[in-house]
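Extended Data, record ATP-binding protein
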Amino acid sequence: MKRIEFHDREKETEEIRDILNSEPSLITFVYGPINSGKTTLITHLVDQLPEDYKVFYINLRGRFIRNYDDFIKVLFDVEHVARYERIKEFLKPMAAVLPESYNGIPISKDTFLNLFKEKEIEDAFVYIETVLRAFYESGHVPVLIIDELQVIGDMKIDGYLIYKLFNLFVRLTKELHLAHVFVVTSDSLFIEQVYSEAMLSGRCEYLLVDDFDEVATTAFMKEHGATDDETIITWEYCGGKPMCLLKLIRADEKEMVAKKMLATRVNQLKDLLDYLDYTQPRMVIGEDEYMVEKEDIVGILARLASLECIDDQGLDRPAKHYLIKNNILFLDPDVGIIKPQSRLNLLAIRTVLGGMQN
C-alpha cells in the first residue's frame, strides 16, 4: 500500500513549535472541521520532537467511556511490573527509562490497583501532576495531548468530570507552568461550552487546523500526478478536504468520483430534511431541551446560498446546534463564524435548496 507523505502544514507546525518553545502557560485547543488532518498533524509533530520532550498522547476516539473505571483505564498506560525493575524509587528515575511518547500516563500495575481502589478522581489527578513534575525536574518538557476529549463531555463523577479535568489543565499550565496541554477536537460546540462553563477566559488559546487552501490543494494534487483539469475539478467539488483529496488521487476517473461524492452528500441532506417532516429532534442547551424546527434549519441553510460563511450571532440556537452536531456546519468559536463542514457540504446545501425553490 502506497503511503501518502505528510503535506504542507508549515503554518500550523510553526505555531505549535512556538508554543512548545515557550513556558507552558495556556491550554491549547487544536480544532477544525472533521477530517481536516488534526490528528495527523499532531502525531507527525510528535515524531519530530527532540528527545528532551516527553509526550503523553491519549486518544479517546472510538472509546466507550461510561464511568470512572472506563475513564481511568483510558487515561493511564498500565505497565507490567517487569517494565519497572530498573526503578528503585517511585517515579524518580522514570523520566530516564521511558520512551519519548506514551499512549497515556505511565503507571505500574500494582500502583494502579492500589492508588485507585478508592475511586477518587482527585487521586488520579495528583498522580498525573506527580509524574509530570518528575519529568520536568529531570530536565524534560512534558507534553500532554488529549484527542477527542468531547467523548467524556457529559460524564459525571461527583459533578461533571470535564470541568475537573480542565481545572487540572489550568493548574498544569497557567499556575505551575509544568506541562504543555493540547486538547484536540472537531466538536466546536464542546469548545464553546467548556470555554464558558469551565471559566477558561485568559487560560486557553486556539489553533485552527482547517482544510487546505487552493494553493496547497493544487500542489498536493500536482505532486500526485493530477492534470490541470483534474486539479480544477478537485477544488471545485472537494475544496481542500484531505480525506477527499486522498480518495481522488487514487481514482482513475476523478470527475466521476467527485460527482458521486456530491450526489451522496445531496441525498444525505435531502434525507435529513425529509426526516424533519416526521419528527422534531430535541437539543439540550444548558439544562433545558429545545425543539428543532425544520423551518429554522432551512432558514440557516438558506443564508449559505450566496455566502461561504455566516455570522454565528442571530441564528436559532437549537437549529444551529443540530446542524453542527450532524456535521453539516462547522462553528469556529474563536472568530464566531459558521461555515459548511466541507466544500461538498456547501455544494449539497445549494443544490438541495435550489431544488426546493423550483
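Summary. The mean pLDDT is 86.
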